[in-house]
């Protein structure tokens, strides 16, 4: 029978992306009956929804993949250095088939509510299809960048042309041939989509509010020899990844950028630019993210690159970020982004000088009175990051307190995993964990494995409940804030701090201490018998 209130399951996992599918695999190994609810028409999460032109991972494919199965590592063959969205989705499908995961995934079903039954120590989980399931454990694997932001542009409903969101791109073929297209937003999604849309469109107008720092991907097909070379040492490479600071393997820098002279710095930055790695420039010196002067040397290097690529000096200047230090918002990895502005049919509109007044039936009107006539508008306007997907669910914990009430001034939890008063409810890639500051493929495995070990511990010891201790949670919040305060991140208005969403509390939302340190802290907690958590057994179990 389908799981229902009468047929309880052991665990509900919310979301069938990379995190949720791996969590299902692990819980199954423990012998838990598990159901995964997925809102989409198919599995894949982020890589299902973000199928916009040019969508591609900005972590190398050989690193951005599951590490838990040596056999999977050997059999899967990536075709490019940076995998495109369709290839990553094919990989996710392959994994789901290989580990027979689909049979426990219920598609087209959004979890709308989860309420804790304090007497029976179970969660009652409801969906938009009218199902209710009870489960002892709930894992929110609902994504750190999965709730698209409402762009809040007036008049959007009146436009008579086509409207697209990069984060909700249709599955059907979209053709821009012969069309006048607008892209609003120049974050990583816009930066990837713009050059590809420009290939097709008759005219492309980019509406930019804040320019991004975009670095060249130098994407290319992978050579058979380099794949074979890595596969020969994949176990060792995976171990190094797990122990690394951000989920990718590199030799950490040892010197301050300010200790090097101009020529030396330039050479280091040129090499990093040529490396095609998202964090290449960050890895040159120790203090790029902690010292404004050091950071400015990199920021100015990127601006000099923009000036050397973009032929019109005024456009180059508009594309040059000046309002925030390099990498305090996520840098973008691109293919041909800046050079696209040299094409005669591509126009850049600076929303700082001429903001959008309204969208009209025919196009977009800016404050200078100009109406940009359009056939299609693409919103690449970002997400309600890190907390959006958890707060989208009506979660009711102990004493009838909702997660929305509890997090009204910002998220609170212990280890980024469990929030006090919401027992047995775990989050993968949620707030106050390293998530978005790392290679999330490595981060999600670490958290899924910690959660799985924790549940195994509870069951082995006849325990039914784990909750965060309020004092430990307060300490964790202070620790995360303190780690962030050592960096340039928290002072910058970005989606890392919630500043992109009107009314969202301003809190630096990620753990900036590194995945290696985070892993040690999580492991130490588990080893000590879950210090900072309250574990209990109940007779009703
Ligand atoms: P981002 O990085 O949040 O970028 C959103 C962009 O859209 C950014 O340039 C915003 O400008 C712009 N934006 C947002 N709202 C508006 C309105 N109303 N008007 C004009 N411009 C607007 O999202 P992405 O999807 O590009 O990238 C998200 C992450 O996904 C990425 O870092 C990868 O990790 C994967 P603003 O900066 O707010 O001035």
From TrEMBL:
PANTHER family associated with the record = L-ORNITHINE N(5)-MONOOXYGENASE-RELATED
The record's annotation in SUPFAM superfamilies points to: FAD/NAD(P)-binding domain
Q: What are the names of the required cofactors?
A: FAD
Protein keywords: FAD, Flavoprotein, Monooxygenase, NADP, Oxidoreductase
Q: Name one Pfam family in it.
A: Pyr_redox_3
The protein here is known as: NAD(P)/FAD-dependent oxidoreductase
Taxonomic path:
Bacteria, Bacillati, Actinomycetota, Actinomycetes, Kitasatosporales
Q: Which Gene3D superfamilies match?
A: FAD/NAD(P)-binding domain (3.50.50.60)
**Annotated family:** Belongs to the FAD-binding monooxygenase family.
**Signal peptide coordinates:** none
Report the domain of life of the source organism.
Bacteria
């Amino acid at each position: 029978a389908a799981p229902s209130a009468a047929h309880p399951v052991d665990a509900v996992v919310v979301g069938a992306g990379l995190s949720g599918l791996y969590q299902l695999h692990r819980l199954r190994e423990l012998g838990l009956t598990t159901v995964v609810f997925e809102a989409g028409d198919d599995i894949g999460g982020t890589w299902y929804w973000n199928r916009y032109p040019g969508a591609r991972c900005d972590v190398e494919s050989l690193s951005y993949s599951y590490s838990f199965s040596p056999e999977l590592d050997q059999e899967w063959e990536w075709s490019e250095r940076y995998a495109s969205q369709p290839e990553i989705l094919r990989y996710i499908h392959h994994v789901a088939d290989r580990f027979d995961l689909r049979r426990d995934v219920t598609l087209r079903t959004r979890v709308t509510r989860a309420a804790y039954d304090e007497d029976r120590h179970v969660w009652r989980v409801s969906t938009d299809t009218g199902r209710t399931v009870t489960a002892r454990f709930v894992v929110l694997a609902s994504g750190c960048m999965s709730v698209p932001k409402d762009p809040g542009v007036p008049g959007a409903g009146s436009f008579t042309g086509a409207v697209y969101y990069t984060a909700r791109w249709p599955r059907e073929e979209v053709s821009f041939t012969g069309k006048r297209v607008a892209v609003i937003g120049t974050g990583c999604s816009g930066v990837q989509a713009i050059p590809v849309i420009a290939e097709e469109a008759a005219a492309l107008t980019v509406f930019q509010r804040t320019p991004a720092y975009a670095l060249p991907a130098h994407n290319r097909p992978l050579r058979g020899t380099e794949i074979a070379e890595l596969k020969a040492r994949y176990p060792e490479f995976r171990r190094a990844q797990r122990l690394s600071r951000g989920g990718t393997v590199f030799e950490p820098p040892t010197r301050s950028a300010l200790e090097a002279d101009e020529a030396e710095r330039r050479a280091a930055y040129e090499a990093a630019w040529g490396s095609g790695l998202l964090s290449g420039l960050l890895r040159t010196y120790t203090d790029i993210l902690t010292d404004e002067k050091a950071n400015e040397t990199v920021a100015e290097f990127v601006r000099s690159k923009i000036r050397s690529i973009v032929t019109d000096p005024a456009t180059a200047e508009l594309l040059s970020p000046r309002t925030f230090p390099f990498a305090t918002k996520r840098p973008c990895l691109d293919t041909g982004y800046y050079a696209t502005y040299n094409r005669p049919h591509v126009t850049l509109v600076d929303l700082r000088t001429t903001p959008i007044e309204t969208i009209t039936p025919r196009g977009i009107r800016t404050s200078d009175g100009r109406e940009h006539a359009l056939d299609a508008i693409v919103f690449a306007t970002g997400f309600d990051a890190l907390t959006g997907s958890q707060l989208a669910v009506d979660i009711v914990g102990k004493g009838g307190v909702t997660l929305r009430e509890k997090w009204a001034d910002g998220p609170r939890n212990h280890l980024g995993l469990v929030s006090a008063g919401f027992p047995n409810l775990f989050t993968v890639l949620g707030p106050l964990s390293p998530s978005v500051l790392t290679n999330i493929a490595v981060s999600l495995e670490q958290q899924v494995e910690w959660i799985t070990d924790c549940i195994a511990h509870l069951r082995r010891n006849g325990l039914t409940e784990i909750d965060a201790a309020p004092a430990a949670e307060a300490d964790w919040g202070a620790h995360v804030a303190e780690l962030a305060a050592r960096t340039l991140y928290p002072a910058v208005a970005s989606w890392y701090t919630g500043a992109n969403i009107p009314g969202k509390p301003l809190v630096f939302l990620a753990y900036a201490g590194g995945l290696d340190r985070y892993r040690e802290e999580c492991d130490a907690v588990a080893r000590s018998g879950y210090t900072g958590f309250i574990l209990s057994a109940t007779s009703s179990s």
